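Worked example (supplementary).
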Amino acid sequence: MDALLSSLVSVAFHGVAYGMILYVISVGLSVTMGLMGFTNLAHGVFAMAGGYILVSALSRFDLPFPLALALSFVLVAAVSVVLERLLYARLYGASELEQVLFTIGLIFMSVAVARMIFGTLQQPVELPESLKGPLALFGREFPIYRVFLIVFSSSMIAVLWFGVERTLWGAMVRAAVDNRAMAQAIGINTKRLFTITFAVGSGLAGLGGALGAEIIAIQPTYPFEQLVYFLIVVSVGGMGSLRGPFVAALLIGVTDTACKYWLPQFGAFFIYVATIGLLLWRPAGLFGKSA
Amino acid sequence: MRIPASFCMTVAVLAMAWASPAAAQTVKIGLISSYSGPGAAQGDQVDKGVKLYMKLHADKLPPGVKVELITRDDTGPNGDVAKRVAQELIVRDKVQILTGVVWTPNMAAIAPLTAEAKVPFVSANASGAKVVGMSPYMTRLSFTLCQSAYPLGQWAAKKYKRAYSAVSDFAPGHEAEGCFVRGFKEGGGEVIGTVRIPLANPDFVPFMQRIKDAKPDALFAFNPAGKQATAMMKAYGDLGMDKANIKYLGTGDITTDEELQGMGDAALGVITVHHYSAAADRPANKAFVAAYKKEYGADLNPGFMVVGAWDAMDAIYTAIRAQGGKIDPDKTMEILTHYKSTTSPRGPVSVDPATRDVINPEYLREVRKVGGKLANVELETITNAIKDPLKEFEKK
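After joint prediction of all chains, the assembly is encoded as:
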């Protein structure tokens, strides 16, 4: 009985931690795709860039970890403003196919550029000593970094939720996404609003890539390899919702971990079965607005 | 004005006809490797090994003989592409010898072409046990997984009673699992569980927690080197499995020299068996590593794939020298399959004429810090010459 209880505790913990990792790397996409409705498959590019910024800041410039995290947000957000003005803004009204083709093209270019600059090998993350190793809690050991991820991502979702649901900026974004013409008519500068929102979404992607770099290795094919996980989280969560992807990430994280722990022979495909099942049950996602 | 295609063709053919007498003593070697896609890191190692060897041995060719290297990209584990580029190399570029190939399925796809066109092929990496037997014109100077996994199992049984095996779920993983389990059981150990982990898997913690709760004395691991192996070792460290007295064992694939620095301290103390370590203090290896660092940068270490490519080229150069640059396919195979070297960076290496497969030395190593950097430190020589155990089992 003790053994069962203790394995339940560890499955719950690891599941939540894994869900947080999924959420952290997808959170930016829940803004650009979930909120702004732009099919941004190149999300992983921003996440990868954030990861590269973090590892370079830590290993080449010896910056402290919190500063490196902040840099990965700020730099990626700044670059994304340029990209948004030059490229993305032209495709806001375009069809999904055009957005997909455009962003896939961006991925190919970024993979080649990353390979040219950083080489093909994965980049090591040098965590501060205080975030390494196991932490004893309730008689079991939990990896400290994952505890940190759970705490950090929970605060991140809280801030984001507050920003979108409770501030004027959030209200304007929601209004502009629902009906851009009407929002403009009542005097909202939607162009500037979208630029800022896109920058926030991309910055979050960069932050997510940086936070997840310890667990999901940063190397040139990152945007392709992780794409399926971003899309699962956002589509299961539902478009146009911030809460959705969070709940979806937790749900997938916990069930996937439970399956890998108790039935490892099905570990390979459980996450996909769960996705298909959930989408059959609710095609618009858990919290999506049905069309 | 449009120039007819046939005219262009004629000019091209004439140009080739004129050019060819001058290049009569040029041996054309085709190198197939992964220059793009998910295996680009591995393909890069093979490419570097071949080119470094050629650069340093240009003066070791018979007078008047030149070697021309033609490279092609197979884009990763992709048999169709490998077959197509091999065909181009054989038919259009008229290469006389083929080498390279990171992936076993690619080597299998090329096998029928080498037999039909009688073009000798030397594997610089692809290591699936059976694939060499698929064409009489194929030989290998890399390794097979069983050569390290089987002796590791035998060695581990002397020190540990209960082992758990966790491998990546693809053909080499299954081969490694089978050979380790066989060796461990023959030595009197008990395998209390096996698990196969999907290749596309971002999180190893649930699997490792399961293993930790089963309380084995040793964990046998095999994944493709790099991010998979690193993620699994990190999960091992994060869960405190080292403190729970579970020893981490594996074939050398999980701590390759080129990736080791990126793995961080998670790799410290991991015990592996393999045929090559960049940290080995054999004089031939020291010279090799120094040449590699001089060419590609002081921070880089050559991994076993560089050595596989290096030795494949050494065998090919031996064949070129013995024939004075005039390549006859059957004679070349005869020389290649009797190849023997004591000056390889890995130590003594040779080819078994009966199976055309490589005979390797195997060393027991531990990951330690040497001068602040991680290294596979060789502790003892397990054997100086081991044939592929899988083929030996079948003979019995």
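Two points are worth noting when inspecting this output. The first strand of chain B starts at residue 26 and ends at 33. DSSP finds 13 helices and 14 strands in chain B.
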